[in-house]
Automatic annotation (TrEMBL):
Protein origin, superkingdom: Bacteria
Residues of the Mur ligase N-terminal catalytic domain: 23-96
Positions of the Mur ligase central domain: 108-314
Cofactors (names): Mg(2+)
UniProt PTM comment: Carboxylation is probably crucial for Mg(2+) binding and, consequently, for the gamma-phosphate positioning of ATP.
Name listed for the protein in its UniProt record: UDP-N-acetylmuramyl-tripeptide synthetase
UniProt keyword list: ATP-binding, Cell cycle, Cell division, Cell shape, Cell wall biogenesis/degradation, Cytoplasm, Ligase, Magnesium, Nucleotide-binding, Peptidoglycan synthesis
Localization of this protein: Cytoplasm
SUPFAM superfamilies linked: MurD-like peptide ligases, catalytic domain, MurD-like peptide ligases, peptide-binding domain, MurE/MurF N-terminal domain
Biological-process GO terms, alphabetical: cell division; cell wall organization; peptidoglycan biosynthetic process; regulation of cell shape
Source species of the chain: Candidatus Sediminicultor quintus
A GO term for molecular function: acid-amino acid ligase activity
Keyword Cytoplasm: yes
Gene coding for it: murE
């Protein structure tokens, strides 16, 4: 693609050099640059791409997009913009020919529930005969290719490339998690969503957003983007959990079709007659196209909300209720979410990705209903995250658990003991028994040794993750594998 065509939609402050260049690829990481590529210099949280310009040129870059004024490089075209991260998204859309306009794209945002909802939606669309791609925290699924994900929402250039692959493989739908970080950092800029789902919001992620107001503002960007589209506005939908705090903020910024869902308040899609068990639940759902019974192969009231979101999105796309119900009958959950492990033990082991106080509170309240015995929780908090929530996490977990094992969960550059002590401050408010064991394998082993007949052990935070990240190393770690090795004597 000619550089002049590639930069058509870019707001440019200055051009030095020739725009009549043939660009064969674009990227923001100098290590991935090849011959005749455009290198976009992004100032990140750790590295500044402007410091890697010469490396990119040595690898074959013929043009640069920069935010800063830089030294002239002979034979290299330099394009200066205000925001190179946003420019990357605009360029990626242009380079990959706006793939989101050729798919039915559904985005899910909120503090919790995103992953489960996307997997539910994929199951429903697949049941209805539609080829469906999925992008999110656990996996990226494009056709027959299933790859582990490194972030909730990938960088814009990788996202547009993935959507382009879905188009080429003739996918009908794409369902994706849209994180507040992605919205704040313009990763989904230019994505043309057909529907957006809001699940819930709590006081998280202030390590980037600094305060709740900014966090809320970032989340709302997904819904505001529905109002700016090349697609027909009458076929766009905002799908909002009416029971969630701050739901009105999302309703008020919406200018397309509104579908509300919930349990407590009047909603267009509403659950009634909920029956909950440890391993399953059922409910009647009332919708604008009729009512039906839904059976889920896992528990938790919060999963009723997740199912309602998926049902609401599915009916906006013309999926009949009988197919939706049938899809749920066959669906056994998203990777690492509410997974019960059976090794012949006389107590229950649950693996779950819950890693913030809102998600932990939800699953613990649910599990508390199913044991008159001990509820033992293994958990930690990620390093380089907003540390003010750690005491709140400790208090929430202490409120519902009988015994707590505080451990490490990707401490990164932080001291795992320091993180544990910050959690401990909240646990102490509840007067519950606890222990700190920063070695996560030993922490899990201790929890299982502590468990007795009828108890429930929740191993929270990592779900399907296969790594434990420290400041100077990354080691293989999977909670489910650890449990299996303990019971098989490995």
């Amino acid at each position: 693609m000619k550089l002049s065509e590639l930069t058509t939609n870019l707001e440019i402050k200055e051009i030095i050099g020739d725009l009549n260049l043939n660009i064969k690829g674009i990227y923001h990481n100098s290590r991935e640059i090849k011959r005749d590529f455009l290198f976009i210099c992004i100032k990140g949280f750790t590295f500044d791409g402007h410091n890697f310009i010469d490396e990119a040129i040595n690898r074959g870059a013929v043009a640069l997009v920069v935010e800063k004024e830089i030294l002239f490089r002979p034979g290299i075209t330099i394009i200066r913009v205000d925001n190179s991260r946003k420019a990357l998204a605009i360029l990626a859309n242009q380079f990959y020919d706006f793939p989101s306009r050729k798919l039915k794209l559904i985005g899910v945002t909120g503090t919790n529930g995103k992953t489960t909802i996307t997997y539910m939606l994929r199951a429903i669309f697949q049941e209805a005969g539609f080829k469906t791609g999925l992008l999110g925290t656990a996996q990226n699924i494009i056709g027959d290719n299933i790859n582990s994900s490194k972030m909730t929402t990938m960088e814009s250039v990788d996202l547009q490339k993935a959507l382009k692959e879905m188009v080429e493989q003739k996918n009908n739908f794409a369902v994706m998690e849209v994180s507040s970080h992605a919205l704040q950092l313009s990763r989904v800029e230019g994505c043309d969503f057909d529907a957006a789902i809001f699940t819930n919001i709590s006081k998280e992620h202030f390590e980037i957003h600094k305060n709740f107001s900014n966090y809320l503002k970032a989340k709302k960007k997904l819904f505001l983007s529905l109002n700016r589209s090349k697609k027909e506005a009458s076929k766009k939908f905002a799908i909002i959990n009416i029971d969630a705090e701050h739901s009105k903020d999302f309703i008020d910024c919406n200018k397309v079709n509104l579908i509300t869902y919930g349990i407590e308040k009047e909603a267009k899609v509403r659950a009634k007659k909920i029956k909950m068990k440890l391993k399953s639940l059922s409910f009647m759902v009332e919708t604008p196209i009729g009512d039906t019974e839904i059976l889920l192969n896992f528990g938790g009231k919060y999963n009723v909300y997740n199912a309602l979101a998926a049902i609401a999105a599915a009916i906006t796309q013309g999926i009949p209720l009988n197919l939706i119900s049938r899809a749920f009958n066959k669906f056994y959950g998203a990777p690492g979410r509410y997974k019960l492990l059976e090794y012949g033990q006389n107590y229950t082991i649950v693996i779950d990705f819950a890693h913030n106080y809102h998600g932990l509170g939800s699953i613990l309240q649910n599990l508390r209903n199913f044991t008159p015995h001990k509820l033992i929780t293994v958990f930690g908090h990620g390093g380089e995250k907003y540390n003010k929530v750690r005491a709140t996490m400790g208090e929430v977990i202490g409120t519902y658990s009988d015994y707590l094992v505080i451990t490490a969960d990707n401490p990164k550059s932080e001291d795992p003991v320091k993180i544990a002590r910050e959690i401990e401050a909240g646990v102490k408010k509840t007067d519950k028994d606890y222990i700190i064991i920063t070695d996560r394998v030993e922490a899990i082993k201790h929890a299982l040794e502590k468990a007795e007949e009828g108890d429930i052990v929740l191993i929270a935070g990592k779900g399907p993750e296969n790594e434990q990240v420290y400041h100077n190393k990354v080691i293989h770690h999977n909670d489910e594998e650890v449990v299996k090795n303990i019971f098989t004597g490995r």
